[in-house]
Amino acid sequence: MTALKFFMVPGGPTPVAPFSHAVEADGWCFITGQMPTDPADDSLPLAPGIHEQTIRVMENLKIVLAGLGLGLEHVACARIYLTHFQDDYEAMNQIYAGYFPPDRRPARTCIGVTGLARGARVEIDFLARR
Question: What is the pTM of this model?
Answer without folding.
Answer: 0.96
